[in-house]
Amino acid sequence: MNKKLHPEIIKHFHSTTFTTPIIGVTGGKGGVGKSTIAINLAAAFVANGKKVALIDADVDAPNDSLLLGIPLENPEPVTIMQPVFDSDKCTDCQKCVKACQMNSLFRSREKTITMMGECNGCEACYLVCPADAVGRGSHSVGTLYTTRRGDLTLYTGALQPGLAESALVVNAVKKAAFADADNFDIILVDTAPGTHCNVIGALKGAGHVLAVTEPTPLGAHDLELILSLLDMFAVQTSVVLNRSDLPGQQEKTEKTGRAGSVPVAAEIKLDKDLLAGYLQGTPVVELFPNSSAAKIFLDLADRLAAAWPDQKTQAKTKARQEQL
Amino acid sequence: MKEIVILSGKGGVGKSSLTAALAHLLTEKGTRLTLADTDVDAPNLHIVLGAEFDRSRAVAASDKAIIDYEKCSRCMRCVKACAFDSIIGDNEPIIISYSCEGCGVCALVCPEEAVSVQPMENGKINFVTSGAVRVVAGELGIGESSSGRLVDIVKREARQEASLNGSDLLLTDGPPGIGCPVIAALKGSDYAILVSEPTPSALSDLQRITEVVRGFNIPAGAVLNRNDMDEKSARITRDWLIRNEVPLLGEIPYDPCLPQALARGALAVNMYPDAPSSLALRNLHKVVEGLLD
């Protein structure tokens, strides 16, 4: 079922301009605990003395700031090019109308060009206009926030409600964090649910990805999807089994399909302390540092840090990437 | 025919479970309905219903740039022109299909006419029958894009199906988030049911989805799922709904019967008709029935 990707695309996916390790937290299904795991892991790395960047790349529904109990600060708009039409220069050739693949441009009876639909900032209208009648304006599609608290820096991307340009906001928030990459020991990326281009964009550059799931038929189904995606890009992956004692089909989740060949990095049971932290907006690692839930994250952070860079695994992953 | 869409902003709050339970209860009382699963990234409605696909059809809901390397002079102008960084390469241009928006700028700048934008297969439409209910479900290929346009096709097919079988209602199970596929699922709906749960995260996402729904002038009401999860958050959510004039259609308590039924491929409203969640869903379904008049 999987399409084979061009080896250059896989290489491009893994290429970064810095050496700070990137860990992705994803999961296919929504509500399985991606953000909970991302913020607690971030807090655990900080507790272990690391400087951490956490990127909230679920730009449709960014919640990491709420779960960390820190406000969104330093807003900056994410803008894209939006055409501005100069009716004095326009010769009514309508090449722009034809060039717009979004079918967003409309020529009114007064022979002026108006934008009626969405614009993704591709600049096709600007390129085809022979009369220099299309100017480059800008249009805000979302907001980036950077909040610094001690050794943790949270980068949040937020899509403007009503707009469709999630991918552009994902790229912008990653770019902002990556520009400071050398200041961090580790970069964590929390993704949106799903297996679409925004999830791939969010995970681009990640050397290790945690695929979070829960032991329900829905969790198992969506885990297969996300693991297939990660396999296409030859990403080193492990599974975090959340709410592992939910009345359900744990065995099936762990042992069938692709999930059977991916290591389980951590198992988290339904936990009162974890839920209390979630509701209160404090990582359990800070709220109850001696709780069993906190220990899971501290231990996971330790193991991830120790395994990085695990020469043997890296070499194996690299070989797989080259083989593709 | 009425169209109702179930959305939430936040994932995993129970959209699909609610869709399936409502479909079952409404059908039981004689409403004819068709379901659309527009969570094309993680289509789960058929699993909740415990049903298999009758048939599937591949669809090309995506336009992507393609390079004819025999014509390509390796001038790399397309690489520089792409506003989405979707063409890479040092010696020859390579299109990153998953992020290509199909805007055609690369074709416009190519002096050799080596680039064209062509429709590409990016997913499937699956047809499912569950008892008296027909389901049209979209499924995006792994690593594909243009989920919004796939959702458009799912909705078109579901409307056709609904008019063929004389449905009174098209009930759409929406995707999480507020972006492109959500807007596609929402468009043309008469009403949106916004599912939330009493947590700060779910409230924040409820606020964002409410803003989207309002922007499209579609009336909406809320359902508070797992309402006993946290008393304080539940109170804050109810207050917010009142202040913002979003009617609360119903509340459903957390119920271990739900995952238990799900694990067996059954609906809790069927398997445990007297469970607290089943009773709450029966009340809710009457409210939804009222929306159909």
What topology emerges from the helices and strands here?
The complex is a heterodimer of chains A (324) and B (293).
Chain A: H1 7-14, E1 22-26, H2 34-47, E2 52-56, H3 64-68, E3 76-85, H4 95-99, E4 105-107, E5 113-115, H5 124-128, E6 134-149, E7 152-159, H6 166-179, E8 186-190, H7 197-203, E9 208-213, H8 217-232, E10 236-241, H9 250-255, E11 264-267, H10 272-280, H11 284-287, H12 292-306, H13 311-323
Parallel strand pairs in A: 1-8, 1-9, 2-7, 2-8, 9-10, 10-11
Antiparallel strand pairs in A: 3-6, 4-5, 6-7
Helix pairs in contact in A: 2-12, 6-7
Chain B: E1 2-7, H1 15-28, E2 33-37, H2 45-49, E3 53-59, E4 62-67, H3 77-81, E5 87-88, E6 94-95, H4 105-109, E7 115-120, E8 123-130, E9 133-140, H5 147-164, E10 169-173, H6 180-186, E11 191-196, H7 200-215, E12 220-225, H8 231-243, E13 248-252, H9 257-263, H10 268-271, H11 276-291
Parallel strand pairs in B: 1-10, 1-11, 2-9, 2-10, 11-12, 12-13
Antiparallel strand pairs in B: 3-8, 4-7, 5-6, 8-9
Helix pairs in contact in B: 1-11, 5-6
Largest interface between protein chains, with number of residues from each side: A-B, 69 and 67 residues
Largest sheet of chain A: 9 strands, mixed
Q: Tally the helices of chain B: what do you get?
A: 11
Distance between the termini of chain A: 16 Å
- Integer average pLDDT of chain A: 91
Major sheet description of chain B: 9 strands, mixed
Q: Tell me the strand order in the biggest sheet of chain B.
A: 3-8-9-2-10-1-11-12-13
Run of helices and strands of chain A: HEHEHEHEEHEEHEHEHEHEHHHH
Number of strands of chain A: 11
* Rg value of chain B: 22 Å
Care to count the β-strands of chain B? 13
Oligomer: heterodimer
Give the overall form of chain B.
Answer: elongated
Report the average pLDDT across residues of chain B. Answer: 95
Q: Terminal Cα separation of chain B, in Å?
A: 10 Å
Number of helices of chain A: 13
Q: Give the amount of beta strand of chain B, in percent.
A: 15-25%
- Class from secondary-structure proportions of chain A: alpha/beta
